[in-house]
Amino acid sequence: MSKADTPTSSSRPRGADLPGDPDCEICGGLGYIRHDVPLGHPDFGKLRVCTCRQGDLNRGRRERLYAMSNLDQLSHLTFENFEPHGRIGLGPQQAASLERAFNHAQQFAHNLQGWFLLQGRYGCGKTHLAAAIANFVVDMGVPTLFITVPDLLDALRFSYNAEDVTFEQRFEEIRRVRLLVLDDFGTQNATPWAQEKLFQILNFRYINKLPTVVTTNLSLNEIEGRIRSRLTDPDLVTRIEITAPDYRRPMDDSGHHDLSSLRLLGGKTFGTFSLRKDEGLPKEDVQRLEKAFRAAQAFAEKPEGWLVLLGSYASGKTHLAAAIGNYRTGMGFSALLVMVPDLMDHLRATFNPQSAVRYDRLFDEVRTTPLLILDDLGTQAMSPWVKEKLYQLFNHRYNAALPTVITTAGRLEDIDPRIRSRMEDRRLCRIYALTVPAYRGQR
């Protein structure tokens, strides 16, 4: 073996499931080796096919591998053309999640050990990274299948009537393939049959520790329990969440699309807020307004606990709440601002059979969002269902101590006692009253 080349891993066990010759003294069965060159060299970190496999990798074999991998339409998605820092203007937290996913995806492609779970909303880059892994591995000659979960289930269904392959043969091909990449997990029609087939495939690969990549826009709580327990095994699974927004909708940094009202309140910033010192208002009212303003600024810099803003209509509550949200999203962090009546309408709308959003998913998104701003608490119609949903929302964020901003024009005494008791907990919550009259613009 040349001194310039070393096996990628001396600890990898030899076996028939590896792409190379298991008796090869150069690669130990891995099938490829890495150039042993100093940092900065053009070939640093690059792999090349071992001599034990170069004879097999003729044009026909490469074409068969790509056909098997279902990558014909995704062959352009590689690590080289993935932007690990995201688009210009992406916030630091979102850019960091992309870079972390990129680095782990490259590491997985080189090692092919364990499972790799990528979570994130549509358009964040999950499929690109999953396809980049598959393309890289196929180039190394490793049998790979890249397929969306709905297509996988369709392939199994069609095999019942296929003439060239039986269902059992197709099923075995899928669950035993050296690398399986399941894209868009969770978009399938979750019939009992589909759930059972997916579990059988993943359970087989889990028991045998076969390299597997899964991408999904679901939260873990939305995944069937048996599969979730395997996807959360820290000894096998590397789980990465990408928080970057849909690259097709670059102006939507909130991550909540139609739910958040921040886009409508983009002009509400700390710079455009008036402290109303020249309106001849009582000194105590102006001081309370300034105190609330400073508290909102401090909260925006470091969101911790809860911030409650009390005051009559047009006193500045919503402006300060929106300024907090706009400041955080401007820094690249996620924030959701929603009027409480609108939130209840959004939740009710999910019960429509034509709704593209499931109730449990939307509710979980709201109650777990890193920063939640609830505007106009108390203006919603207080049916028993609404009272229960609000309590569940507040109770979850209280127990998890998640940063929350609440504005209300009502009295604390009129709020559901279960919610009020949490708002009055001084260990978590700070309350500021805006006693100025309605703002009508500068004189």
Structure, described:
- This protein has 443 residues and is an alpha/beta fold.
- It folds into three domains: 1-57, no CATH class; 59-242, Rossmann fold; 262-434, Rossmann fold.
- The protein is built from 14 helices and 13 strands.
- The protein has helices spanning 51-54, 59-69, 92-111, 126-139, 149-158, 167-176, 192-207, 225-231, 283-301, 317-330, 340-349, 359-368, 384-399, 417-423, and strands at residues 5-7, 32-35, 47-49, 115-120, 144-148, 179-185, 212-216, 237-242, 306-311, 336-339, 372-375, 404-408, 429-434.
- The strands form three sheets. It has a five-stranded parallel β-sheet, with helices on both faces. Strands 10-11-12-9-13 form a five-stranded parallel β-sheet, with helices on both faces. A three-stranded antiparallel β-sheet has the order 1-2-3.
- Helix 13 links the parallel strand 11 (372-375) and strand 12.
- Helix 2 (59-69) packs antiparallel against helix 4 and helix 12 crosses helix 13 (384-399).
- Mean pLDDT is 82; it is low at 6-17, 55-61 and 250-257.
